[in-house]
Design a protein that fits this description.
Blueprint lengths: L7 E8 L4 E7 L1 H9 L5 H8 L8 H10 L12 H4 L24 E3 L7 E2 L4 E2 L6 E2 L1 E3 L8 H10 L13 E3 L5 E3 L2 H12 L6 E8 L1 H13 L3 H6 L2 H4 L4 E5 L4
Antiparallel strand pairs: 1-2, 1-10, 2-8, 3-4, 3-7, 5-6, 8-9, 10-11
């Protein structure tokens, strides 16, 4: 699995009275992780959460594949392609929940005779000219222009992932992510200060593999995943730091 020591820091603003997350302040690493959940194959999600805990019937479908004798599968098909599908996106360089064996760099093979077909499985017969496809070719990931690449290197932005690292992001309890600005911060403070029954508390939490899996599960069956994961009685004692903020004065 992923490195159990990998940790991501997240700062939360919590209503201490209702024990609910109002908003979070996140950096590139946390936003990249949350966005990377969208790249997970369904088989990986079920394996991480275990089939028995899945809502609906998809867990039964997963278990059906587990229990199916491989003699019923067509040639060159393995159950692992369904139960443990590989993550092939080139943009996810360090997924908190997956190990390097789960992520794979696909190889591509072109027909050396007609050059009209490409495959990811070596020795596949070209459907156009019926020749074996064995010549490996390189897949070029879309990137910056030369000038943009140089600027990215100078600013430290060419580091993979999905979002820029020079920006602080705001994430709500229902996982809406937006860039944080002075205006949005002032608006939030004003909105919270208008509620007399709100007692604001800042909490800094760390997100490792355990919290990552909990966030994945909560995001599938809850509209308040941050509260569910970080404000449960078990998580209160694990907070790195917290402080009460009085905005009513």
């Amino acid at each position: 699995m992923a490195d159990l020591n990998s940790k991501i820091t997240l700062k939360l603003l919590i209503d201490a009275r209702s024990d609910k997350v109002l908003v979070g302040e996140a950096g590139k690493d946390f936003v990249d992780f949350m966005f990377s959940l969208l790249t997970l194959p369904l088989g990986c999600i079920i394996k991480l959460l275990s089939p028995s805990t899945m809502i609906g019937s998809i867990g039964k479908l997963y278990q059906s594949v587990e229990n199916l004798n491989e003699i019923y599968l067509v040639a060159n098909r393995e159950k692992s392609s369904l139960l443990q599908p590989k993550l092939s996106t080139p943009y996810v360089t360090n997924h908190l929940l997956l190990d390097t064996e789960t992520s794979v760099e696909l190889r591509y093979y072109i027909c050396n005779y007609c050059n009209r077909r490409i495959t990811t499985v070596k020795n596949t017969l070209c459907p156009n000219c019926k020749q074996v496809m064995v010549t490996e070719t390189a897949f070029v990931v879309p990137s910056y222009s030369t000038s943009c690449a140089t600027r990215a290197e100078n600013t430290g932005e060419n580091v993979g992932g999905f979002v820029k690292g020079v920006v602080t992001y705001m994430i709500t309890d229902d996982l809406e992510v937006t860039p944080m600005s002075a205006i949005s911060s002032i608006t939030l403070i004003h909105r919270f200060s208008m509620k007399k029954d709100v007692q604001l508390m800042e909490k800094v939490v760390t997100v490792g593999m355990e919290e990552g899996i909990a966030l994945l599960k909560a995001s599938l069956d809850s509209s308040t995943p941050l509260t569910d994961v970080f404000c449960s009685p078990k998580k209160k004692a694990k907070a790195t730091s917290s402080s009460t903020v009085d905005l009513m004065t």
